[in-house]
Specification:
Layout lengths: L1 H10 L1 H6 L11 E6 L6 E5 L1 H7 L4 E6 L6 E2 L11 E6 L2 H16 L5 E2 L33 E4 L3 H5 L15 E6 L4 H11 L3 E6 L5 H4 L13 E4 L4 H12 L3 E7 L5 H10 L15 H10 L7 E4 L2 H10 L4 E5 L9 E3 L2 H11 L13 E5 L4 E10 L2 E15 L2 E10 L5 H17 L4 E10 L2 E8 L10 H8 L4 H10 L1 H6 L11 E7 L5 E5 L1 H7 L4 E6 L6 E2 L10 E7 L2 H16 L5 E2 L16 E4 L4
Parallel strand pairs: 8-9, 8-11, 9-10
Antiparallel strand pairs: 1-5, 2-4, 2-6, 3-5, 3-27, 7-23, 12-15, 13-14, 13-15, 16-17, 16-19, 17-18, 18-21, 19-20, 21-25, 22-24, 22-26, 23-25
């Protein structure tokens, strides 16, 4: 090699003279030096991929500085490569096969095992937005200049049939509706109420985050209230404040505008003799109570334990199969949810949850530990009136591993109500509503279809979140209505609710889905060429993103690093599928954005200090 020849040139002129002017051919074997590429990042706990490499027929050597405890970065240059592997074999086909396996190990992130971290197990919602966290780039305040909203220029895409005409009472202008904690989709409910001539009073619960009060989804437009009141320590004082704010207007309904407002809405509506779910089922919002109630009713429920002290849950965590899920009993969205892979990690997160403030204010008082349900996660959106439940839509979450995160949301896909899955899920979800005593208003059931049947993750007694970006898609699929409209019908329009279909129409009027954009790269944005391409797709309806020129994009690993939401819909499913594939192709090729050059220089791998060298002994 060059090493021996260099020594000969300096110390053995005779030997140097005998060396050929060029390497002799053909070579005695086929080989190459492979610079390893990491598509993930984190603190290394083991290196299973290295052991696989060492047993490849073509393996010669591996040079790496990665050991247990090392931090591996995404490979963007030679200096961030996790190592160099030399492969050589007399059979070129075997060499190529080994190279293919090595690249496959890289692609599926099998080179390393990493120390686990908080993983988002719930769909991105506004509820995860707090002033302590970075602003969610997927959703931003309506008044902020960083929000980008793009609509289709084709009215047919957004119309998809005549919208149902909504009637109202002759006295609507003299009536007012109370919406408790209107945020996320609750803002759309407020605007739907106002569009029918009613005034709206916003009631903010005790401890509700000031930041959340200003969070307005882009699809909601400008929020206007007749008045705003704060929940008081005493229920009677809260009711009094509402009556004083209403003045001469008649209060005709009290609706929960978000997860945090459910309990208050039940109490206020019951006290004011309005349409209500009441308080006869205590703590129905508590996820632990929900599971206990459906278990007692003979329905499939989650194995679980909960408590305010470690000794309350340690026996369960010592006997349950891992991974397990830990979360506050009254969490909103993915607030505090973590997938724990061993008891030490579970103990650490258990104590952590009592030290941090909850998303909507206040502190957690109890932690729920549950079995990890395996299967696809579905959503059943329904609206009830006097115990009659109507399904407005069934969805399935498209969740996949990406960027070293186990649960990244890629989208939400509507499910045909005539499908076998829907026929299993809908009766189960309605049974849960009956057990929990939910007779009025919207509900949002998250259910996993396990090998042993459907199992409740949680029942949310409010409208589907996600900032209501799905509304235009739902209206297009049904021919004019979504859970938002039916929610208002259930409280204010008995006749319209009665003629609303029991299930969404089948087949749907079109094909569509919500595509959540995923970034595989990071950097400062200097251009957004992907936006123009998305806008020109045949199935494009709507896009909302917080990323524009000057924004800094992170790799998508959770809801905070999501970069946008796109609604695609078309009468021809082949057109829809082609457009979805185009979007995913742009993500993988990093074509959504142009990034500022980092200025990093590629350096020769030999300049790195390699601390571990593994050499094959039998070549």
């Amino acid at each position: 090699s060059q090493v021996e020849a260099s020594v000969d040139a300096l110390l053995d002129p005779a030997a140097f003279e005998l060396l050929p002017d060029a390497p002799l051919g053909p070579f005695n074997a086929h080989g190459l030096q492979v610079h390893l590429v990491s598509h993930s990042a984190g603190e290394v706990t083991s290196m299973p991929g290295f052991q696989v490499m060492k047993h490849l027929p073509s393996f010669v050597s591996l040079s790496t500085n990665v050991t247990v405890g090392s931090t591996v970065e995404y490979t963007t240059s030679l200096s961030t490569s996790p190592g160099v592997c030399v492969l050589m074999n007399k059979d070129e086909s075997k060499l190529n096969k080994d190279l293919g396996l090595l690249r496959y190990l890289e692609e599926i992130n099998a080179l390393f095992d990493y120390k686990t971290k908080v993983e988002s197990l719930a769909r991105p919602t506004a509820a995860s937005y707090t002033k302590q966290q970075k602003r969610n780039s997927r959703v931003d305040d309506m008044e902020k200049p960083s929000l980008v909203r793009i609509y289709s220029n084709d009215p047919k895409l957004t119309r998809q049939g005549m919208l149902m005409k909504r009637m109202t009472t002759i006295d609507a202008s003299k009536e007012v509706v109370v919406v408790v904690d209107p945020y996320s989709t609750g803002c759309l409910v407020v605007n739907e109420i106002r569009s029918r001539g009613y005034q709206v009073i916003a009631c903010w619960t005790l401890g509700f985050s000031e930041e959340m009060k200003t969070h307005t989804p882009g699809a909601a437009g400008e929020m206007k209230y007749f008045a705003e009141v704060d929940e008081q320590e005493d229920l009677a004082d809260t009711v009094k404040a509402i009556y004083e704010a209403a003045g001469k207007l008649r209060v005709v309904a009290c609706i929960a505008g978000g997860e945090a407002g459910v309990d208050c809405a039940d109490e206020v509506s019951e006290r004011m003799n309005l349409r209500t779910n009441g308080t006869h089922v205590a703590n129905r919002r508590d996820k632990k109570i929900q599971q206990e109630l459906i278990r007692d009713a003979g329905m499939r429920s989650v194995r679980q334990a909960a408590g305010s002290k470690w000794e309350h849950v340690v026996e369960f965590l010592q006997t349950e199969h891992y991974p397990v899920v830990l979360k506050p009993t009254d969490s909103a969205g993915s607030d505090g949810v973590k997938l724990c892979h061993n008891i030490e990690e579970a103990k650490q997160h258990f104590h952590h949850l009592f030290e941090v403030e909850a998303v909507n204010g206040g502190f957690n008082t109890e932690v729920l530990c549950q079995e990890f349900l395996r299967g696809k996660e579905y959503v059943v959106d329904q609206v009830s009136r006097d115990g009659i439940h109507k399904t407005s839509m069934v969805w399935v979450y498209d969740k996949r591993p990406a960027n070293n995160s186990a649960f990244v949301y890629f989208g939400m896909v509507p499910v045909d109500p005539n499908s076998m899955e829907a026929k299993i899920l809908i009766p189960y979800a309605r049974g849960v509503l009956d057990v929990l005593g939910v007779n009025n208003g919207p509900s949002h059931a998250e259910v996993i279809l396990t090998p042993t049947g459907p199992c409740l993750v949680e029942m949310n007694v409010r409208a589907h979140g996600g900032d209501g970006n799905w509304r235009s898609l739902a209206r297009g699929l049904t021919g004019g209505y979504s859970q938002v409209e039916v929610t208002v019908d259930s409280y204010l329009d008995k006749k319209q609710f009665s003629i609303t279909p029991n299930l969404p129409p089948t087949p749907f009027r079109a094909s569509g889905q919500e595509v959540i954009l995923v970034s595989y790269s990071r950097g400062r944005v200097i251009g957004t060429p992907g936006y123009d391409i998305i806008r020109d797709l045949q199935s494009f309806v709507y896009m909302e993103t917080g990323i524009k020129v000057g924004s800094f994009v992170e790799r998508t690993v959770d809801l905070l690093t999501g970069i946008g939401s796109v609604i695609l819909m078309h009468e021809d499913i082949s057109v829809l599928n082609a457009d979805i594939s185009r979007v995913r192709e742009m993500e993988l090729n990093n074509d959504l954005f142009e990034f500022e050059r980092s200025g990093a220089m590629l350096t020769n791998a030999s300049q790195r200090h390699l601390s571990e060298i593994i050499v094959c002994d039998d070549f």
